[in-house]
Each structure stands twice: as structure tokens, then as C-alpha cells.
Amino acid sequence: MVFIPPYVPDAFLSMYLPAIYAGLIVGFIGTMAIALKREEIHILILTDIVGLAMIFVVSAVGTDLAEALILPGLVVELAETLAISEILLTREMRKIEQNPRRNLQKTSSMFPQPFALNMEILNTAPNFIALVLIGYGIFLTGFTGGAVAGGGIVFYALSKKARGLPVLMLDGIAGVSGIAWCLWILGFLLFFVAPQYWLLSLFLAACGLLLKVASKVGLIGLLMREDFDKE
Amino acid sequence: MISVPLFFYFGIFLAIVGSLATAWGPGVNDPIVRTFNTEVASIGVCLVLLCYNHVLALLTLLATTVVISLILFRAIIRLEEMGADV
Fold it and tell me: Between the CA atoms of A12, A14, A15 and A16, what dihedral angle is there, to the nearest 10 degrees?
């Protein structure tokens, strides 16, 4: 017997079991492939598939609760992927440092080589597209707005040829992140202390999350600019 | 007239086929090919979210998929430059 909350739309009732089974199948495929593979980068890519299975199972609920659970899941998965890829790169650098003779035989280097992205859209349209994405992200607020605005920042950072980032700017982004946490915690506290100001606390939390996620995703773009756009 | 079950089951089909292609598909020993195959599965998930009316989840999935594939490409390119066996 399955307990069905009264506010689940009737149209979603028949979609529950197929979605759950599809999620289980996709998750099984992903975990089996992870068990069979040795190389870490392949395992990192396959973790993405397991994350998709998670989205299937959560979205089968079909209410607003599902949406509210998918959003942080996606953003946390993004942060995990970034952190694990950095760890992989650092480990590989350490391996090469410990055994430099192996490094000398092949044509390999510890430092990234120049890699030019000569796409027309990166020269002509970056300002407009980044502005549209950031504006739409600010309009959306919350996790979604943070991801969309962050995508705009990534695009802008990728398309600009300047290299290097002053330390002051990195500190500034970290400061924005701290302020965003404070806004979020303040909104959460106000929600319980003074429930009549729920709209204010909702907007505090939403704008805090927007700043937090957008600045984090923007940092990814600045990281990538260090690698890709070198002269 | 849009048939929702058609989109729903096609999304499930795409997700399962995409994850199979990512796991054991042709040419997956190249990590770039594996990353591209992940996109097929994520399009399937997008269709399922569309059927469930989860607009915000759909938008977030699109944005994070783009950024995740950029991160993975960066990691793959750096690892290959360093001469690691990928």
C-alpha cells in the first residue's frame, strides 16, 4: 500500500511507479559501471549518472517538495564534482613530482599549455548574453537564479582574454559569500521568530542563496580562464 | 495536443539508453566520449522534469549540466596534458 498525500495532482499518480523503476535502473547501471572501472576520471563522470538517478527518484514525488529537494541536490553535485576534479589534478601533480623520470620520457607538463578557443560567439556576443543570463538569474533568485547567473559569469569570464586574478578580487568574492551566508541565516531565523514577516525572510534567504551560488559558479569560470585563454 | 505520457516514457527511454551508453557504449574508453554520452541521459531527465511541471528544477538542471561538463572537460584536458593514463 502506498500513502498518497492529498495535494499530489491526479495526473502524476500513474507516473510514480515508472519513474521510480527508471531511477532504480539508471542508478544500478551507474553503480555497476563504477564498480567495473579503475580510472578515477571515468568514475567521476559516472557519478554524474548516479546523480541523474537521484533526480528521477526525487522527482517522482511530483509536488513542490520534489522541486525544493532537486535544486540543492543539483548545486551540491556541482560543487562535489568541482572539488573531486581538483583533488584528482593535485594527486596527479604529486605523482609526477615524486617520479620525474617517468615525466621526462613523455611529452607532458605540469603546467597547462596554451589552448585557444577561437569561436565567433566568444568575440561578438559575450556582453549581451552574459547580461541576459545574469539579469534572468537575479529575477529568478534562489538556487536556480544562482546557477543561471553563474552560467552568465562563466561565459563572460571564458570569453575575456585577460589572464590572472588579483588577490583583492578573490578576497572580495569570499566576502560576498560570507555576507550571503549571513543573509540566509538571518532569513531562516526571522522565519521562526517573526512568522508575520515571512515575505521578507523569504527574500533574504533567496537573495543570499543567489549571491552564494552565483559567486561560487563564477569562481569556476575564473579558474577555467586561467587554463584556457592563454597567449 | 501534447501527449504527456509519450514525452514521459521517451524521457525514461532516453535516460536509460544514455546511461547504458555512458557505461558500456562504443568508444567510452575516451573520457570525452563518455562525457558526451552523459548529455543524452540528462536530456532524458529534462523531458521527465518537463512532464512533472518542475520548471525551476529543469532550469537548474540545464545550468548545472553545462557547468559540470565544462569542469569535466577541464579536468580531462589537464590530466591528458600531464600525461596521466586516462
Answer: 90
